[in-house]
């Protein structure tokens, strides 16, 4: 959409803007949130001032915008690729999103918020600290209009296909963490999230957000309190787990034109060593730097370094297979030769076919025409007030007198 608007800007003149400006304010609906050191009458006077200044015609209720969201089919696996225009930029970017449902589903929203709380530190630690994929890494619950889901965003010099594989690797790691999480740790995450939702206000901006969202804040806190570990395990296995046949996923790949500088052989040997050290510390296993250096001393390629690390883990440190596999995966990630994440090559979306016919979590579908893809999606219901908002409209006698004048 932004690119479509950008193309039209070339044809827009100053006269066009001058003619359009009065039209955009000629008919509208005015909403004002007033708080802090104001009386009710003062708030009404401010609203009246806005209306008297703009002098708009009233916007009929049937013309009010009705935001809707796209419902991604269960089991879908979409990828959208776009090349960045800056020829000198070496940073790729991936936004990996998982659809969960309606934003106003109270229980779903609480689960997403809690998942964001639980994965915040592990995600950053795995993808940023251990694998060093990039400086800009964020994760958490995502809400847009009535859409709700979970997303991970990474800006990195590494290829988007590789980044997608590392994100899915993290989902597998956290699934084990969640299953093995103690009740005490789980309750700690719940309490932390509840405290965030009910935190004391720090400034007017926070107070403003609290007023707009006060209903969600209180309801989220009460709903979070009722969630159990089993609730989250079931939620994760259905909507997040890479092994789920029901989860709905879209990843956006912004691909750089330029390539980052190839690391030297010494840098290639240093990267897996740093990742390995973190994993060994995590599992309380003593490192053997002398043996490790002897293994990689004569390695001259990524594959040779990977083989040397594997031999070091199994022969020198005599690690259990599960831990050794994890450590080797981290070392390969540091070398940029780990799992790319695709079990099958992406296939172009057939816009003439029913979108449900291309749903297959193991077969990524490449979006080539965004407008056609959106047209193939089912739209959600619009947001509607529980009660008619006109029931809450009040106009004081004093203000009515001013309006008559």
Automatic annotation (TrEMBL):
InterPro entries linked to this entry: Metalloenz_LuxS/M16, Peptidase_M16, PqqF-like_C_4
Keyword annotations from UniProtKB, A to Z: Metal-binding
Pfam families reported in the protein's UniProt record: PqqF-like_C_4
SUPFAM superfamilies: LuxS/MPP-like metallohydrolase
Domain of life: Eukaryota
Gene Ontology CC terms, in alphabetical order: cytosol; mitochondrion
A Gene Ontology biological process term: peptide catabolic process
Keyword Ribosomal protein: no
PANTHER family according to UniProt: INSULIN-DEGRADING ENZYME-RELATED, NARDILYSIN
Protein name: Insulin-degrading enzyme
Organism whose genome encodes this protein: Pyrenophora tritici-repentis
